[in-house]
Amino acid sequence: MTTNSTLLTALLVASSTSFFSSMMIVGTERWHGSHSLDHDMSAAQKFHTRPVPRVGGISFFIGMLAASAYFFLSEETDTTLVHVKLLFAALPAFLVGFVEDLTKKVSVTTRLLATFASPLIASWLLGAILPRMDVWVIDVLLKVTPIALVVTAFAGAGIANSINIIDGFNGLAALTAIMILGCMGVLAWQANDVFILQLAMTGAGVALGFLVFNFPTGRIFMGDSGAYFLGFWIAEVAVLLVVRHPSLTAWQLLAICAYPVIEVIYSIYRKKFIRKMSPGLPDRLHFHMLVYRRLVSRIIPSSEMRPWLRNAMTTATLMTINAPFAFLAAYYGDTKRAAIACIVAQVFLYMAIYARLVRGHWCLNPIVGLGLLPEHKTKSI
User: Fold this and answer.
1) Dihedral sign for Cα atoms in the order 371, 265, 275, 293
2) d(Cα 301, Cα 317) in Å, to the nearest integer?
């Protein structure tokens, strides 16, 4: 079997298995709904109108297991072994997320520790340890293995939690993951790295199969288990790309992942330093929530026939803003300068739109956006 046909078949196996798994979860919700349905629709970060199963992460895991089985039957020994090791490494984050999906009682600290544990296990099993970040001082420190392990764990946990933070509207987290993994697949293809391309495409495949039931109507949610699993997979593909390709700048990968990373960093900063609250507490001031409340809800009237329309249009709006930057980073961010420029542009656009949605008028002063000066001391535009 040719490489192209193997890759396409693996993508089909991952997506179709995820699709049928999601269909089974949706079709049998009356049997498991007392545990799996998200009944709390009044919480700060909830924007759905009816209880929905939030255990879509199961379909991701099953879809990846099916892809691993396919690689095994195709005698792709190396890929099979890496798939199995990555699935094993993903277990702490996935299982803790799954328990949270069912009980809604797992502490923030426990979930955070689980997302740290998974990349550490991957470092042990696969040698997936960040060798550099293309920042001189940090690169010197990364030569010390314990420091490199800590930085790798922080990076992996950060990506996992960033996907979880943006998982608020139908299709947003899944489409973002597909976008990121697709762009990383482009980098692997440009580097003739079929191995990483297979990992990226199977990751995108399980998200794609799930997406049929998640967007636009939101009949199933990925939950913490799914968000942590996809975030972990993205992080490991990124780390392995840096490990295997010394000429690839880490800044390009950061530019591709910029949207969820910017969201999680600014959310922590906003809660800790502007609102003086714990970063682990939920609120209704995430970027995607403001787009829904301050933009989409004012343009699109509510509809009893299509109660999911505003929700889905929020995702469409955000993807329209973010996808061009990810694609630009994949195709033109192959130098450190270009990648950093792409990141800076995304940060500026994020802050400008965020300030506009909060204040009701444009304010392009980043010092005001960071809460370091009151607005009356600057000139708003």
Assistant:
1) positive
2) 16
| Planar angle of CA 142, 97, 176, nearest 5 degrees | 70
Tell me which amino acid residue 104 is. Answer: K
Count Cα atoms within 13 angstroms, Cβ side, for 192: 0
HSE (CB half, 13 Å, CA atoms) of 91? 8
Percent of the chain clearing pLDDT 90 (strictly above): 77
Q: Could you tell me the two tokens for 93?
A: 């984050």
- Name beta bridge partners: 53: 37
Contact 52, 221 (CB under 8 A): yes
Nearest-5° Cα angle at 90, 252 to 169: 65
**pLDDT tens readout for residues 24-78:** 999 998 888 877 887 565 554 545 567 889 999 999 999 999 999 999 998 788 8
Q: What would the two tokens of residue 379 be?
A: 């000139």
17, two tokens: 């298995």
Residues in the chain: 381
Beta-bridge partner residues of 37: 53
- Dihedral, CA of residue 96, residue 97, residue 103 and residue 106, to nearest 10: 60
CB 191 within 8 A of CB 245: yes
Q: What's the maximum distance between 2 C-alpha atoms anywhere in the chain?
A: 67
Q: What is the SS3 assignment for 53?
A: strand
Helix, strand or coil for residue 37? strand
pTM over 0.85: yes
Q: Which of 29, 17, 106 is nearest to 59 (CA)?
A: 17
For residue 294, is it left (φ>0), alpha (ψ between -120 and 50) or beta? Answer: alpha
Residue 271 reports pLDDT greater than 80 = yes
Residue with tokens 């470092």: 123
Q: How far is residue 183's CA from residue 45's CA, in Å, rounded to a whole number? A: 29
Q: Is the pLDDT of residue 381 over 60?
A: no
Task: Report whether 58 contacts 25 (CB < 8 A).
Answer: yes
For residue 4, is pLDDT > 80? Answer: no
